[in-house]
Amino acid sequence: MNAPAIEFWFDFGSNYSYISVMRIEQEAAAAGARVVWRPFLLGPVFRALGWSTSPFVLQKEKGDYTWKDMQRQCRKYGLPWQRPSSFPRSAVPPTRIALANAEQPWIGEFCRRVMQLNFVDDRDIDHAGIVQEVLQAMGLPAQALWEQAQSEAWRERLRTQTGMAHQRGIFGAPTFFVGDEMFWGNDRLEDALAYCRALASER
Amino acid sequence: MNAPAIEFWFDFGSNYSYISVMRIEQEAAAAGARVVWRPFLLGPVFRALGWSTSPFVLQKEKGDYTWKDMQRQCRKYGLPWQRPSSFPRSAVPPTRIALANAEQPWIGEFCRRVMQLNFVDDRDIDHAGIVQEVLQAMGLPAQALWEQAQSEAWRERLRTQTGMAHQRGIFGAPTFFVGDEMFWGNDRLEDALAYCRALASER
């Protein structure tokens, strides 16, 4: 029997995605679920919904709250945290790498390292150099992976992936799907995994 | 030593407030915390933020998701649930009663009954009759309580209460305060109570 799958839609610029990226492999393993990594770009989805940027920027009150909440949430989960000096950070090169290598065994480690750069080290993550730095540090063939990921085919796949996010009703990140059931937000990761387990026990 | 207090800001028309109203007395008792009931009107707060109504109405995708989420959340908490045929319901008379009687021992029971009418029985809760029905069913002097609550003094207090919500940075309901620390959403009730306990142990 295949392990039940949890689709994990996330954006490297999204702060609550950061928490889920750091947590998901361990939590999914404990639940006996398989993570399907679905990196996408939240910016075009926001624009399709009529928002020019993150709601945390558009709505000052919610934004102010979010940064306090992030401090507390990271403390709760035992994660390091530094509010990025630029938000939300665009992250096209790392997203291309993550999309082109979503089924590699090192995908989780790659995503955690990129998130750490953004939300702990406060580094710009929107350029090819950062991606090569991460891949090299992981002992991977950085140049070859980068050339593959920036081919026109993968550029087109990223546009398709982001369009699919919008079509499936995604309006924020992280979002989890278990089958057709959608769960929004890091706060719902446990519920999504509980649903995974319930589906598996029905089979 | 006084028990630490959790301020509970809620609106009778707010669906996530429904879940917290049903849960808070039991959870706070388990945490050794005292609930300070702060009913207010979310509508004027939304308008002060530039929104004409609930974000769940303004943003179709988020709204569609919310109703699925409510079904799952209510199942998780063991609460009955029926999506109201009108949303968000205005609830001025019950809010006036709740405000004027926020320190009565029956406040929790009153709020749960009003929430049940809205989110389980799908009844209009924006009129004096419903309030009298609830108060009578609880064996309380309905007419006297209603006359007091609709005095000009309490009307003014409700405007002040709602203005205070906005001034304190509230942008949704439920919102909890423990001292100056703000927690937004039913999902944060446990965190707010954990913070209460931490404060109490520091004293």
TrEMBL record, chains A, B:
Under the heading CDD domains, the entry gives:
DsbA_HCCA_Iso (cd03022)
Task: Name one matching Pfam family.
Answer: DSBA
**Taxonomic lineage per UniProt?**
Bacteria, Pseudomonadati, Pseudomonadota, Betaproteobacteria, Burkholderiales
Protein name according to UniProt: 2-hydroxychromene-2-carboxylate isomerase
Give the Gene3D superfamilies listed for this entry: Glutaredoxin
- Which top EC class applies here? isomerase
Q: What is the scientific name of the source organism?
A: Herbaspirillum chlorophenolicum
Annotated keywords: Isomerase
Signal peptide per UniProt: none
What is this enzyme's catalytic activity, as reactions? 2-hydroxychromene-2-carboxylate = (3E)-4-(2-hydroxyphenyl)-2-oxobut-3-enoate
SUPFAM superfamilies according to UniProt: Thioredoxin-like
Q: Name one GO molecular function term.
A: isomerase activity
**Residue ranges of every copy of the DSBA-like thioredoxin domain listed in the record:** 6-191
Q: Which InterPro entries match?
A: DSBA-like_thioredoxin_dom, GST_Kappa/NadH, HCCAis_GSTk, NahD-like, Thioredoxin-like_sf
Q: Which family does it belong to?
A: Belongs to the GST superfamily. NadH family.
